[in-house]
């Protein structure tokens, strides 16, 4: 029920302000007020009708929005950029009258599937490592990739001082004349530059990278820079992951 009390961090996340985990940090830092009073206790519960402010601004209770976006290369996965480079939300600022945020990130020079939403609770669940949501990439590599290199990725390699989970890999093409390989790789983690670093660890530089799929969602019917709303069945399935 809408009037039932919920944990403060969940109310903030559900409003699309940030993830539940980051909302907890805001609370303990004293940046959240409820009905004019600073709240630092993570166990505190309130209703959606209470006046909740983050950094002095009331949270907005926008209708939940779920978007599948084909991010082009040369676009920052963020809502703003201090260098004035294009960001993903530029594609929606004159269309979507709500604050939406990317779920996870794709590098500036990486294209492909990106989910944007104002559902902070779903964002938190999709990004949590325990849920192991598969992400499928296609990488264009310099050199003719060898099976033994991909076998290392299937057992995990050390990236950022941490061993990656086993990846699924498949060689799509090898071009001896151009010394180029195309490889599909499936991971479920989300470390910075993870796919590029994994291939670099086994001796190959990534020339081009595209994320083709997140769980059951793919880019069918979209070209670079296009987007669509998720349908109700897709939203329900995502929430069940």
UniProtKB/TrEMBL annotation:
Its EC number is 5.4.99.-. Residues 6-65 form the RNA-binding S4 domain. GO terms for biological process: enzyme-directed rRNA pseudouridine synthesis. The keyword RNA-binding applies. It comes from the Bacteria. GO terms for cellular component: cytosol. GO terms for molecular function: RNA binding; rRNA pseudouridine synthase activity. Signal peptide: none annotated. Keywords: Isomerase, RNA-binding. It is an enzyme of class 5 (isomerase). Belongs to the pseudouridine synthase RsuA family. PANTHER family: PSEUDOURIDINE SYNTHASE FAMILY PROTEIN-RELATED, RNA-BINDING S4 DOMAIN-CONTAINING PROTEIN. This is Pseudouridine synthase. It comes from Bombilactobacillus apium.
């Amino acid at each position: 029920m809408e009037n039932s009390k919920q944990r403060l961090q969940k109310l903030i996340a559900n409003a699309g302000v940030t993830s539940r985990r980051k909302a907890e940090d805001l609370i303990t830092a004293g940046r959240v007020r409820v009905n004019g009073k600073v709240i630092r206790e993570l166990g505190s519960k309130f209703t959606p009708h209470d006046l909740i402010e983050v950094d002095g601004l009331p949270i907005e209770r926008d209708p939940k929005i779920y978007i599948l976006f084909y991010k082009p290369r040369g676009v920052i996965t963020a809502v703003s950029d201090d260098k004035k480079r294009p960001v993903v939300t530029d594609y929606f600022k004159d269309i979507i009258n709500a604050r939406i945020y990317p779920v996870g990130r794709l590098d500036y020079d990486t294209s492909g599937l990106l989910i944007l939403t104002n559902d902070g609770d779903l964002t938190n669940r999709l990004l949590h490592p325990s849920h192991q949501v598969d992400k499928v990439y296609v990488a264009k590599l310099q050199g003719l990739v060898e099976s033994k290199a991909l076998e290392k990725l299937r057992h995990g390699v050390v990236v950022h001082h941490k061993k990656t989970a086993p990846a699924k890999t498949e060689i799509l093409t090898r071009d001896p004349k151009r010394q180029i390989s195309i490889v599909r790789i499936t991971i479920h983690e989300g470390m910075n530059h993870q796919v590029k670093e994994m291939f670099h660890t086994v001796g190959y530089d990534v020339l081009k990278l595209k994320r083709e799929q997140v769980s059951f969602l793919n880019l069918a019917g979209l070209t670079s820079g296009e987007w669509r709303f998720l349908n109700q069945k897709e939203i329900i399935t995502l929430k069940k992951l």
